[in-house]
Amino acid sequence: MAALAPLPPLPAQFKSIQHHLRTAQEHDKRDPVVAYYCRLYAMQTGMKIDSKTPECRKFLSKLMDQLEALKKQLGDNEAVTQEIVGCAHLENYALKMFLYADNEDRAARFHKNMIKSFYTASLLIDVITVFGELTDENVKHRKYARWKATYIHNCLKNGETPQAGPVGIEEDHDVEENEDVGATSLPTQPPQPSASSNYEPSNLPPGSYTGVQIPPGAHAPANTPAEVPHSTGVTSNAIQPTPQTVPAMDPALFSTVSQGDIRLTPEDFARAQKYCKYAGSALQYEDVSTAVQNLQKALKLLTTGRE
């Protein structure tokens, strides 16, 4: 991908988007789609903060030039031309970051890459707002990931051993003010949960942190491709390295035929389409388990009118 023209110095008013712009730069070669939406989020947020001050107008103008250049380079990419595909792509990427960090945390393997992954996942959930309002699950997970990044960073900085897994959030932390949390370089590829990072949910302490309930085995956002139909009995920690364990198919889905009195609303069709897009996006990552889960959800919705 062609190099983008550099941006002028970041105005002080735009400090809140500096980490999103850094994340964009880190992904220019790794995942241009993620880089594009990070810049789009920064552009939209910057416009709301200050679009009149000369230095801010100059910065936003150069950022707009970068966006237009990226969009031209990615003109044939469905993740840019179709919002539903772009949203699925971004959520899948954020999910991989979150699950990697969460598995490392629960296995008590504390290091800079897992801190960076927690924090980047929270930033990417910010970016998902370019597609609309966040769900409650995404809001909770953003808060949890951002707090975890700060908590573990501060523990390691102070020579303390962090407590693994969900622990009490005693106060709100302003992670945006902590430069060190987001400064570590990301791994070359989106990290994957390692075989050694498996854990037994029954051995973990229950989640009891204020305002956020992410019980073991259910810590992935409910609206992301990691959500697993309750009928399968599979936890949301389903993304595994190759070889993959494909979730069992619900036998009822093979014999279910849409009844004549089923009335599907336009919203039902839209949700079914979204599940199918999630499945397609998961297959781009060769994530068979997530693809099967979402196809089952789409089938159930279309044949029963229920999720």
H/E series, N to C? Answer: HHHHHHHHHH
The total strand number stands at: 0
Mean pLDDT: 76
What's the Cα radius of gyration? 20 Å
What is the multimeric organization of the chains shown?
single chain
Principal-axes shape call = globular
Please state roughly what percent of the residues sit in beta strands, choosing from under 5%, 5-15%, 15-25%, 25-35%, 35-45% or over 45%.
under 5%
Low-confidence stretches: 170-177, 192-242
Percent of residues in helices comes to: 40-55%
What's the total helix number? 10
Pfam family, one: Vta1_C
GO biological process, one term: protein transport
Domain Vta1 C-terminal: 266-303
Family: Belongs to the VTA1 family.
Describe this structure in words.
The chain is an all-alpha fold. The chain is built from 10 helices and no strands. It is globular, with a radius of gyration of 20 Å.
Write the layout of secondary structure elements.
Layout lengths: L17 H9 L5 H18 L4 H20 L4 H4 L1 H24 L5 H16 L8 H22 L93 H5 L10 H19 L3 H17 L3
Can you give me a brief rundown of this structure?
Interacts with VPS4B. Interacts with CHMP1B. Interacts with CHMP2A; the interaction probably involves the open conformation of (polymerized) CHMP2A. Interacts with CHMP3. Interacts with CHMP5; the interaction involves soluble CHMP5. Interacts with IST1. The chain is 50% helix and 0% strand.
Q: What tags apply to this protein structure?
A:
307 residues; mainly alpha; 50% helix
